[in-house]
Each structure stands twice: as C-alpha cells, then as structure tokens.
Design goal:
- 2 copies of one chain form a homodimer.
- Chain A is built from 27 helices and 11 strands.
- By secondary structure, chain A is mainly alpha-helical.
- Chain A folds into 3 domains: 215 residues, CBS-domain, CATH 3.10.580.10; 231 residues, Clc chloride channel, CATH 1.10.3080; 237 residues, Clc chloride channel, CATH 1.10.3080.
- In chain A, helix 9 packs antiparallel against helix 10 and helix 17 packs parallel to helix 19.
- The radius of gyration of chain A is 30 Å and the shape is elongated.
- The interface between A and B is large, with 69 and 69 residues.
- Chains A, B: Pfam families: CBS, Voltage_CLC.
C-alpha cells in the first residue's frame, strides 16, 4: 500500500541504500510513531550540525520540562550516561592498549627464540627476577633450543624462523582484514577526522572492525613491517566508544552527541599509544579539530585520556611502571634541569638542518606514498592485497635482518637511539663505540642506510591491507638520521675540539659536548613535522615521551623548520592527502584565502538546481523529483522565484506517507504541495500542507560575499548547505561537498581512491 | 569648509569622541589618501570580525599580487613581522617577569631586615655562597641592625617596620595607579578576554599602563596584600605586545591581526606567572578562548609561551635554575613515578570533600567580592581609593603579622604547605611537629584561621585600586585548607592505624600513609576550580607547578567536583562575573540552551530601527540621522521595505565628505542617496551613488531560527550584527550587545560597575 510509494522508486543505487537503511531503522512501526525528519543518515552522507544541534536542543528541552523529580533527575542522568561512556572507553582502551603491548612483545620475541619456562613468556618476563650481573639462560634462541651448534646452520635457522614468522604474521593480519573487516586496514585517522567533522560512516566503527583491527594490528606490528600502532589505536578507541554509546538512545539518535564522545575516545587512543595524556588532548585539538570551541568536550577528552593512561599504567605492560619505553632515555640524568645547560647555540645549525631534512623527506614520503597507493589501485597489485602483504613482510624481514639496526622492533630501536651513551650500561650494536673513528663512520653509514630503507618501506606499507600507523616508522627514520647527524657533529668535534665553532664547548674533549641521543629526538621531531604537519601536539608528545622538558625550545624550532620547509613543497600532511584521495567530506581548518573570488564562483546557480515550487508542484511531480534525483534536500521557491525554504528528501517522503496513511491514496497524487502561509485560503481538499517539512536552521547569504567568508562559515558553523538569496529571490546554493572540492582542487590526485562517486 | 560637516555635528559625547579619534588618526591628510571605511574603531566599540577578516584578505591579496620579487618577498616579510612581535613579546615578558620577581623579593625582604653587604641584596643573595651548616650573619633583622636588645622593643620595631612598609608600598602603588594609569588596577583578565573577543579598548594597553602596572604590581605584591601577580602579568604581556605591534602598519590597521598577537602574549604572560609554558597555552585556550579554531594562533601562543619561560629561566630570579618556587616540593622523591603508589582509594573521600569545600568557598568568595565591589562603587569608599588601599594594607599586614603563617609572602607559604615533612629539612613554623597531638591541633586551627582571614581579605582586595591577581591568594587559601584536612586525616590515622578504613595503609604507623603536602595541592586545585571555573588548564598548571604528573587523576577529580558544586551555586567564574558587572561586550563560550524561544524574541523589530531608505533619503536627512543617532551602522531598505544592505556611520560620512570635496557643497544636501543598481537610470545630478558603502559581509537569518543557533552564530562567526529578512523584506536586527545582554540577564548585578552606558 503505502510501501508502494517507496518500493516503486527505482533510483540510483545510492538512493536505494538510503531507503533500505531507512526502512531498517523504522523497525516496522513507522506509522504509529512519527519519526522526526532528518534524524537518520546513511553511510556516506554528511550530517547537518545545525540540524543535529536543534534536535539535541529539543530533546534537552523536553527533559528539563518534565515535572517534579523527573525534571531534575533526567538531565543529570543524561550527563551521567555521557560520562559512563567516556570513562568506560578510557578504561577499555587503556586495557586494550596494554594487552596489545603484551601480545606484540611476545609475538615479536618468538621470532628470535622461546622461553624455557613456558612458551607464553616473553623475553623480559622470562628473564625477570634475576639479580644484577646474572646472565639469563632461560631465554633460548631457536638454534639454542634445537641444539644447533654449527655457526652457519644456526644463522640460517634464525633468519629462516625470523622471516617465516614475519610472513605468517603479516599474511594472517592481511587475511583477517580482507575477509572480515576491510575497514580495519590503514591508520584510520583520515576517516576519524572526517567522521568527527560530520561524515557518516557507522560501518567503520563496528564491533567486528574493532576486533579485527586490534588483532590484526598486533600481528602486523609483530611481523616487523614498517608500521606503528598509534593511528590504529585511535580507531580502536573510537570503535569502543561507538560500541558503548550504542547502549544509550541519546547517542544512537543524535549524531552530534555521538561525535562528542568519539572525540574524547580519539584523545584517549593517542594517550595510550604514546603514554602521553596531554599529547592526546592536544592531538585531538590540533589534528582532529575535535573540540571546536567547546571546552566541555575538551574536558571529556582530557578525562578519557587520563583514565586511559592510568589504566595502561596499572596493567604495566613493560614491567617498568612507566608509560612508555622511550621515557627511559633521560632517567640517566639526576634531574631534568641538569640538562638545561647541555646545549649550545652553535647546535642550532645542525638542528635547523635536521628540520630542513625532515621537511624535505617528509614531503618525499607523502609523495611516494601517494604514487604507490595510486599505482596499487590502478594495477593488478590491488587485486591481491594479501599476497602483497606477504611479499612486503618477507622483503621487510629480510632487509631488517641484514641491516642490524632494523632487526629489533622500531620502538626498541628508537628507545636505543634516544639514549645517550653511558659507559655503565650496555652498548647497542656498537653505537657507543667511542674512540674508533671507523666504528663511527660505520655507524653513520648504517644509520643512514636504515633510514633510507625505512623511507621506502614505510611509503609502501602505509596503505596496504593491514592496520598501519605512520607515527612510529617516521620517528624511527628521524631518530636514525638525527643520531647520524649527532655522530657526525661529535666526530667533527673530536677531531677539532679547539675550532672557533666549538668555542662554547668545555675545553676538555673527553667531556661530552654533543649529545647524539638528543639529536635523535630532534630528528624524530623534524620527520614527524614533515610528514604530519602537526606542530604543538608533536612537541608535547615528544617531551612527554622523552621527559626532555627543558629541551622544548630546540624541539619546537626543528618542528617549525620542518613544517615551513614541508609546506613550501606541498601544503598538506599525510592524513589530509589521504582524505583528499578518498574524497571524504572534510574541511581542513586552514585559513582559506581566495584571490578575490566571491561565493558566486562556487555556487550552483538557481537554474542548475532542482527546486520545488510552492503552490505549483503536485504530489506526483514531487514523487518524480524524489525518484529522479538523489539529492539530500531541495530548495522551495514560489511562483515568482522568491525563496520559501529548504526541505529534505526524508521529511518530504515522510509527510507524504503520513498523509497517505491518514487520508488514503485517492486523489493524492493530483494534490498541490504548499509550503507557505500564503495558500491558507486555497481549498484544503486541493492541497497538502507541507510547511512543517521546512528546515528552520538554514543559513542564507548573498552571493557577493567573499569565498573566504563562505569557507569560514562552513568551517565554523558546519552546515550541510548554504542558500543564496537576493532581495528575497533564490539565486543559488552551495553544499559542503562543493566547499570540500574547492579546498582540495589544488591537490592533483583528489578523489583518486574514492570508492564510488559519493552522494551529494 | 568640509570640516563644517563634521564639526557642526554636536551629538552625544560618544559620537564626539568618535569623530575626535577619527580626526586624530587621519593625520591631517584625509583628502589626499582615501582611508578605507570601517577601519578605525573608537574605544568602547566592538570590532566586526568579518569586516576585519575581509580587510586583512584584501591586504594579503594586494601583497601577493605584487609583481616579481616583491610578490614573493612581501608576504614573507608580513609573516616575519608577526613572528618578530611574538618573539619580542616572549622575551620581554620573560625578562619583565624575572625582574619583577627580583624586585618583589627584595622589597618583601626589607620589611624584615637588611643585608650587611649592601642595601640592595635580598636575603637569599645576601646569604648565598655559604657552605652547608654555616649560619648566615650578613642578613640582619631591623632590630639586629639597630642593636636593640630588649625583647619587647625588638618585637615592636619589627612589627612597626613590617606594617609601615606594607602601608607605604600599598599606598604608593595605589597612588601611582590612580594618578597615572587608572586602567592598571585589578587583574586585567576580564578586559583581556573582552579585547580578544573584539572589544576595542586601546587605552587599556598603553605603554604608560604597562609601566605603572608592572611597578604597581611589584609594590602591591611586596606590601603583602592578599593578591597575586598572575592576572596582571597577562595584562603586562598584552601591553608589551601592543607596544611592539604598533611598530608595524599591519597590526595598527587591522584589529583582527592585532588580536592574534595579543592572544599569543596572554599565553606568554601566564607562562611567566607560573613558569608553566603549557599551562599558558591551555589558559589561552580555555579561559581566554583566544585561539578559536585557528591552530596557527595557538602555535604562536606556544612559541611566545616557551620563549618567555626560557627567558625567565635564563635570568633565574630565584637562583634555583627552576622556573617556580613550588616545583621544589617533589624533588624529595627520587623520581616522580615513585609517587604513583602513595595514594589510596579511601583518600578519595577527603579529596572529594575538598572539592566540595572549594566549590562552596569559591562561590562565596565570588559573591563576597561582588558585594564589596558594588558597595565600594555606591558608597563613599570609592571616592578615596588610595586611602582604602592604605587601610587595607595596614589591616592585612597587622593580621598577617599576628597569624604566623601569613607573615611570609603567599608564594613562600604555598611552597611550604606543598612540601612534605622531611626530617632532614627544616621545620616550617612547627608544621611538621610530628608526635605532639596538641601541635597538630594548633596547626589545624592556625591553618583554618589563616584560610578564613585570607578569604575575607582576598574578596576585599580584588577590585581595589592596585594591580591584583586572584590566583595566588586562592591557591593560598586552598593550600591551607588542604593541609588542614591532610593533618586531620593524618591524626585520625595515627590514633586508629588499624581501623578498617585504613586497611590499605601499611600496618606500621610510622610509615607515612597520608601525605598532607599533597592534600594541600588538592585543596589549591579545588579552590581554584571553585573561583575560576577553569578545568583543564588548572590541572596542567598545577602539575607543571608541582611536578605531580602521576597524581593528575586526584587533581582532576577535585577540580571537577569543585566545578560541579560551584556551578550549582552560580554558573559564572570570577572573571565572567566582572565582565558582566562592567558590561563588556563579551560572549561566554557556553552552549546556550533556550527554552524554545526564537530569534524573534531578542531581535529589534524593523519598526524600532533607524533605517536609511534607498532612493528616498536625501543627504540632509542622512546627516540628520547621523547627528541624532550614535549607532555604528544602519540597515538600508528600499521603498517597499525590501532589504538592500547595511552600511556604517563611518563609511557614510566618508563618502559624503569625499563627494563634497570633489564636487563641492552646492546642492549637495538636496541630493538623494542611492544604494542599489535600480537607480542607475535616475539622473546623476539628482543623486549620489553610495552603493560602495554597503558592507559585503553581513549575515542574514530568518527570525524563526532558534535563539540557540543565533547565539552560536555570534559566538563562532563573531559579527557585529545579524540582519533578519523574510522574503526579501527586512524584519529586524540583532547586535552583539543584545546577545551579550541576553547571556548576562540571569546575573543580578550585570552592568553595575559599567563606567557609562556603552555605545551600541
């Protein structure tokens, strides 16, 4: 009957999906309760923030206006539910992060050997409880375990197990991702950014994606592929928040509230990834632009972030009572302030050089990564994602095994590179061999080689069918290069300790003047700056990671240099580039400066718009329009072209269905739709009143406004569309999508990885 | 001649000021160069951000479109100038802060004695260079200096010098402020908040204010009045940034660019005040709402903040190589992580209680402060500001001298209260007397008494005619109460070490289970939360101050509790209350929720508006309108009431002056003003074309939008006014002032301290 109206609308596949989704959520009793229009969005569309805020306002108003105790209690309950979700997510992601660390450590270790106590101990747990100086015999390499004495056979066995397990881990991860949760691949941050800004992509946050992403991430990291766990952990945290938020109607029914919780979860994800609760909040602020100017949401992010860090610390996955591995690096020093004198003005030259290197190399990684991603999409490689991962794991493992610095996990490598040489501690692969110039040369060569290999592998890996973060490999590359520059400086100093350049160093060359470990931190900061183009959150994360609070100024200078140099070679960070390639409707929070163009240049003029005519369009024509066009909404004008309002597909369809149900189908299709009060006098039997379908939250501008202001309006108010009128007449319309396209038009590969032409 | 038009306009005093100001800035050659309309604002008005952004856009466009090298160089120079100002401000405020610290320390010390080496050494500098265990004989109290042996005479002399110098310092400070820079009184943060959001108040940032505020602050702090230096330092930093920015045209001519630099300066001010660079940035973000969503500005704030901290550390005013006094408190512990186990779940009960106390007492201070400020304004007290300060200094000094804890400067008191008792270190006024229950009781009584006295004195002092911050006294009150609660808990534990409540404590009661020093931190956090209603920046400032990173969770919980309790007793923090009392046009960044009202309820309807009629109004009528009304701008409508545009007083006046200059005065007053293209056909000799005076950046809405959305539009886009139209017809207008009044209407004393009815 009524359904006939809907099922008989064969339209573009997208429209079909929309209706399908729509039916699912109406749960069969569409006609008993009248759902509010515009409440549901299909995946792939953008929410209208103004609309959602208005809905939230109505709901909150309804709660507050309840009589008596209910009126006082319900709003409190509302806020309590939000905190439950935020706190549960914080605890959840803290525990998940800790569990992942334990799993990764164990998986990584069994590539080299096993524990005699039991198979499920990792090397640290296996050797714990020893006194200082005791040697750990319980941890056996595979050749020890199989009692292989021959040097050649032992090396071969070790390499074979190492590489095979890498391939198995990588392949399993890719297999899981491809078959069970394709959205679990890649970092997830571009999607989270888009979702937080209003993109609807619920499938991306499903429980199944959560599980596969977490498991696949552990396997991928353990396989030794050149990837990190940071971005994926943000994705996992958001999946968790989504899962918890589904328990409460207030989040299910309001996209804006849901996004507030997701923003807090994202901050918690970063907090766990780096053990950096403040860094998490600032990452949410700067990179995800998650808190807009709502300090409440920032506070929720901070709480989630702190709780996650506490949960992680409680589990204590590294057995060190510290949040992260790197923090070890400055505990050699009696106190942080002691560091404050250990850098000299001349060091600014190598540090700024590192900034320049970071900017150039970062841009190179971005470009390389884009080219590889496009090649993958266009060639046969894209058809065999699991094979690609297997191959990449093999190559990565083989290369890493040969170049010693790559053999350990990147996080361990970075921890070692950040560490200053300390005679009382062990030496890492001869990195601290102090007095042999040859060893230094060899180290510099190896470090640069490792960095070079990692650049290529990272650009290849980021985008394969496994969960993959870009942060840790970037830190690794930067740390290698930074340490290399530090070693170069150190050897120059050692050979010319009295040169004027080193005047400010202590005259005795045996006293340390250059700290190569700190150069590694600077290198890492520069590379991160070049790849992500973040600024303040990077600095905070790095000094939370390393404890180098007093060295914040050089870190800032190098990040700034890297960003400036990088921006000169291409404005966008790697996440922005991926967003543009996948054509997500996300507006970068940049200050857009036009060249004098006005909104008229980007607006769709009224002659190109599908409009509904107040008092003219019949129900039949209206249904035809709905069938032929899959736009989300339509402007309504009157006979004279005067702008009456804006209405959405969903609310129109609903209104017609409702009238059809109450008044029957007879003669309905010939009735005239009216939207304004001018038609109150027309006989009611000839018309149906659709004025209730008009949106109240439409922004109108004049087409003479500058593009700069138009973009700023979209960035700040986040509407779905803006209407242009002049002297009451509709002149045109601009949607968020148009603005997104405007802001990405400078990027050559925009939309090259988009799945399908997205809905308007 | 032409000037006749302007000078013959006797209007309200405000208009006169406006014209006066206008003449000053035109520097005599108004008619050679045509100044762009809307560029200048008088003090007391609000800028239109959209307008300023548009002007900045035009300027930047002009720079970029220069040919050749100039086109590449000028924009870079532009950005370089901004960085010069930011960096210079950072260095300047860092040095100024250090200099203030030194001055305050010396002034404070000479209240107790003098250095035998030389009059200008403070007690620390005087006694430096001693070996451990040596006793400092060079620092002499006044009775030692005058060789007074009698116990009574000695006490009397000490008290006399102490109190007289306090009165002299306080009186001098008030005298300087009242006579040379009245804007230098109070904290300055409410004004800075208003200025950053678009209020024009250049006199507040004058070099003279800078000097007097800095000097007066040092005197006021040294006088022992219950005030801190935090807010005033933010003001001083902004004055510096204003001074530096005046050197460059780009800041002089654009209010928006100027505000970006001021935002960075404010962050630097907080950074120096607390030695907390991150806290500075977050304070700018949360309390000043300074960075909107522009991460560039945040980055500038971070740079300024870090540079200021480095400059402060370089001067090293405390001789400790640390940024602040309080940091000492956790250096007893071998490492911060060792702290992580020293708090137990049952302690949440006293901590949450402290949060509740903070919330209640914070609201009490706000209310008391408001009542006192209004009484001061309404009674004769306000006429004798210097006398009031002299009296207050005397009372404060006498009370502080009697109650021992108050005798030292608040910062020193707080540092001692934050410190755990350590047998190897000195005991502070018997605070650590461990085994005498009577001493504990006495300490608790004294601490509560000190807190109570400080509550009253602080509420009185904050608003007197001296520079005064509220942060430090609030921390002091909180630290006293927190320490008292800590001592109560400790004595309960000591008398019942085996109670079930203390199960989680170690069984041996001689091992410390309760850390009263940390309770003091919690108390300080709670009080700050109650008074300022800040959240995340407080937490960050407190853990940057104390190094208690691992205790961040209890600090968060207590701040949160204090904020919730405080909000229940009145939504606004102390700065917001002062803004409301002084009626600054500042929009709190709260999520305003209406009760179903629409914009129609707050809008001024078209019948109440002074409008200009396109094609009808003559020049004479226009000049009359300008003379009679001091509105900043006027809507333009046509004969049929259709909305044509919006134009400002300045641009109208300019356009008329210009025509008058080029075409002469003859017949000018009878000409008709036209604004739209409809009148192109009317004979040019009968009309003057004013279409260029229309603003392009006007936002139009329909009066049916919810108040919530209207407020959000003002908060996010920050326009000066929004126009309402319906079907092309002007229906009304809302200005920022209307929205400010809407948001402060719940506050009973709104505008009670406003100097005069501010311009619209």
């Amino acid at each position: 009957m009524v359904a006939g109206f809907r099922h008989s609308t064969p339209g573009p596949s997208d429209q079909y999906n929309q209706l399908h989704e729509y039916e699912l959520t109406a749960t069969g009793n569409l006609y008993n309760s009248v759902p509010e229009p515009g409440k549901k969005y299909t995946d792939g569309s953008s929410i209208d923030w103004l609309q959602e805020e208005a809905a939230e306002r109505e709901r909150s108003h309804a709660l507050h206006s309840q009589a008596g105790v209910r009126g006082a209690l319900l709003p409190a309950l509302d806020s309590a539910r939000m905190w439950i979700v935020v706190i549960a997510t914080g605890i959840g992601i803290g525990l998940a992060g800790a569990w992942l660390d334990v799993l990764v450590k164990w998986l990584g270790d069994i590539r080299e050997g096993r524990c005699a106590y039991g198979f499920f101990y990792n090397s640290v747990a296996c050797c714990s409880g020893l006194d200082a100086g005791e040697f750990c015999v319980e941890w056996q390499t595979w050749s020890q375990y199989f009692h292989i004495k021959s040097m050649f056979a032992s090396s071969f066995l070790q390499a074979f197990v190492y590489i095979s397990l890498a391939v198995i881990f990588g392949g399993t991860s890719a297999f899981l991702v491809e078959n069970y949760a394709p959205y679990a691949f890649h970092t997830g941050i571009p999607e989270i950014k888009a979702i937080l800004s209003g993109y609807v992509f619920d499938a991306f946050l499903s429980p199944w994606t959560l599980l596969i992403k977490a498991l696949g991430l552990a396997l991928a990291v353990a396989s030794g592929l050149s990837l990190g766990k940071e971005g994926p952990l943000v994705h996992v945290a958001c999946c968790m928040a989504y899962l918890f938020s589904r328990m409460f109607k207030q989040f299910r029914h309001n996209e804006a509230s849901k996004r507030r919780v997701l923003a807090a979860a994202a901050a918690a994800g970063v907090s766990v990834a780096f053990g950096s609760p403040l860094g998490g909040v600032l990452f949410g602020l700067e990179e995800l632009d998650a808190f807009a100017s709502e300090t409440d949401v920032m506070w929720q992010g901070f709480v989630a972030s702190a709780i996650a860090a506490v949960a992680l610390q409680w589990v204590n996955p590294f057995g060190t009572a510290k949040l992260v591995l790197f923090q070890a690096c400055y505990l050699n020093f009696p106190s942080v302030t002691a560091l404050s004198d250990t850098w000299r003005a001349f060091e600014l030259i190598p540090w700024i050089s590192l900034g320049v290197i970071g900017g150039v190399l970062g841009s190179l990684i971005i470009r390389l990564n884009v080219e590889i991603a496009i090649y993958r999409r266009q060639s046969a490689v894209g058809e065999w994602p699991v094979l690609e991962v297997v191959f990449a794991s093999g190559v990565t493992a083989a290369l890493s095994y040969l170049v010693v610095f790559g053999r350990v996990q990147t996080s361990e490598l970075v921890a070692n590179l950040f560490q200053e040489c300390d005679p009382t501690k062990g030496d890492y692969h001869g990195l601290c061999n102090k007095y042999s110039p040859n060893a230094t040369k060899e180290n510099i060569f190896l470090l640069v080689l490792t960095a070079f290999i990692k650049v290529v592998l990272t650009a290849w890996t980021f985008g394969m069918m496994v969960p993959a973060g870009i942060f840790l490999p970037t830190i690794g590359i930067g740390a290698c290069l930074g340490r290399a520059v530090g070693l170069v400086m150190q050897s120059i100093y050692r050979s010319h300790p009295t040169a004027w350049f080193f005047q400010s160093c202590p005259p005795d060359p045996s006293v340390r003047c250059i700290s190569p470990g700190f150069y590694a931190i600077i290198g890492a900061a520069s590379m991160l700056g070049g790849v992500t183009r973040m600024t303040i959150s990077l600095v905070v994360i790095l000094f939370e990671l390393t404890g180098a609070l007093s060295h914040v100024l050089p870190i800032m200078i190098s990040v700034m240099t890297a960003k400036w140099v990088g921006d000169a070679l291409g404005k966008d960070g790697i996440y922005t580039v991926w967003i543009a390639m996948r054509r997500y409707p996300w507006l970068p929070p940049v200050h857009y400066r036009d060249q004098g163009e006005t909104a008229a240049h980007v607006m769709r003029s009224v002659s190109d718009l599908v409009v509904i005519k107040d008092g003219v369009t019949t129900v039949r024509e209206l249904l035809d329009t709905l069938r032929q066009h899959d736009y989300h909404g339509f402007p309504v004008i009157d006979k004279h072209g005067e702008y009456v309002g804006y209405t959405t597909r969903d609310s129109l369809q609903l209104a017609i269905d409702e009238i059809h149900f109450t008044e029957g189908a007879y003669g309905l299709e010939d009735k005239i739709c009216t939207f304004s009060k001018n038609y109150m006098l027309v006989s009611a039997s000839n018309r149906i009143d659709m004025s209730s379908t008009l949106e109240t939250t439409i922004i109108q501008l004049r087409k003479e406004v500058s593009q700069e202001m138009l973009v700023s309006m979209f960035q700040k108010m986040n509407p779905r569309q803006i209407i242009f009128t002049h002297a009451g007449k509709l002149t045109g319309m601009v949607t968020k999508r148009d603005i997104v396209d405007l802001l990405t038009q400078h990027f050559p590969h925009a939309a090259s990885l988009a799945r399908e032409p997205p809905p308007t």
